[in-house]
Amino acid sequence: MANQHSPELQEQRLEVARSLADLQARLGRYWPQIEALAGLGYDQSGTGFRVPEGNPVLGFGGPFAPGGAFYVPTGATAYLNQGNRSAAAGLDLRYALVDFARTPAVQEARARLKESRSRYANGLRRLQLAVSEGYYNLQRNDQLVRIREADLRNDLVILQDVLALKQAGLVPRLDVLRRRAIEAESQELLTQALADRAVARRRLATLLNLEPGLTPTASDPVQLQPSWPLALESSLLAAYQGNPELEAVLATREALAGNKDAVAAQLLPKLSFVGQAGALGAQTSQWSITGDCCGTTVIPIVNSSGYDWSVGLTFRWLLFDAGSTAAQVRSLARQEEAQAQRYAAQRNDIRLRLEQAFFEHEASLAKLASARRAVAAILEGFRDARLRYKSGLSDETTLSLTQDRLVQSLVRRLNATIDVNITYARLLRELLPVPRDPGAPLQPRLDLPQ
User: Fold this and answer.
1) C-alpha closest to that of 117 among 440, 353, 446, 339
2) Which of 50, 202, 210, 287 is deepest in the core (most CB within 10 A)?
3) Residue 275 in contact with residue 31, Cβ under 8 Å?
């Protein structure tokens, strides 16, 4: 349920999808870009003419003589309106033949995708541990409520007995006041246990991202996990192999290296192929001709069409940028070195977490064995104290002290049992196999030699 509903995991799944889309976008740089162009237009203009000197001075005669079709007298004027409708379409092709920044950019995107997938896998491990701890703590609080309820019931029984003895004049008033104080303390502890259980339920509900009206309960009884089957060194070696937390740091370093190479490649030449082809069609209209010349040269409507194409190579080489590109390369190199140090620190953190969980797991098993012996012994003592109390051979003070020791032993045994399970889950968190692909099924199970 947590895997399906966790907002943090959903965010990491979206981050993986974003990284994959970014990689696909950068792979497209190996292919040519083809762009379609088209346009429609209309423009209108008006032109006025004035002839300072006519064409008879040329001596052509014929149509150019006075009265001829092309005769233009000196001082003639004319005005012409024109409208032009045009449509054009074409293709633009661009392809980078030599681009030294293309491959490093793709390598960076691949590393980023690996990084996001590793972070998703590490998020699964963290969620597994959080849900395990939340469930085990809920079991702990459930059992504490039962222990406190039983303790309060016993205190109430003893209080009723003391009240009856007080009425009979067999015990002093001090015994009654002491029993009332003990009963009030037991009631206080039960109230706190109920509050802790409610908090544990809401915390688990938050991890599962349940609706506010739903409250989970632990349906399984407390079951003890077995002792960790691997030695410490074997556990460390297994934790380092394929650890998504370490893989994310390595992927970040690889991405920085790819980005550094891509930035450095901007100083290298780039050769590209370009090609263009297109066609044009236009219609020109002319009207409203006024004046005393030039009308015979005007065509009312003219249609025209044509095409053009071109191919070529473009060469670009950045010769000077005041050192900004080199400075970016140095910055990325320092970040790459920092990731190497982060890898070492992360490896030390993993070792410390696993060693701490390993030692605490062994200590919890040892404490559980001692707590079991203590519970068995004090339980027999409580039975004897109760029999002696009922037979009148012992007072309620001895019975109360024995009951308190029994309750403390039960709580220690419960805490030791839950601690064994929690430390087992913490060890499991460092070795649990998880998928890197968000679409892969999740089967959080680790088969270890017994």
Assistant:
1) 440
2) 210
3) no
User: Distance (Å, rounded) from C-alpha 183 to C-alpha 166?
Assistant: 17
- Burial environment of residue 210 by CB neighbours within 10 A (0 to 12, 13 to 18, 19 or more): middle
Query: For residue 240, which amino acid is it?
Result: Y
| Tens digits of residue pLDDT in 339-384 | 999 999 999 999 999 999 999 999 999 999 999 999 999 999 989 9
Cβ of 222: how many Cβ atoms within 10 Å?
14
Structure tokens belonging to residue 290: 């006024």
List the beta bridge partners of residue 314.
272
Dihedral pair phi/psi, residue 51, rounded to 5°? -105, 105
Going through 161-257 in order, the beta strands assigned E by DSSP cover: none
Q: Are 401 and 419 in contact (CB under 8 A)?
A: no
Q: Is the pTM of this model over 0.85?
A: no
- 221 CB neighbour count, 10 Å cutoff: 8
Contacts of 266 (CB under 8 A, 6+ apart): 101, 318, 325
What is the distance between the alpha carbons of residues 359 and 419, in angstroms, rounded to a whole number? 12
The single-letter DSSP state of residue 364 is: H
The C-alpha atoms of residue 213 and residue 211 are separated, in whole angstroms, by: 5
* Residue 63: count of CB within 10 angstroms of its CB: 11
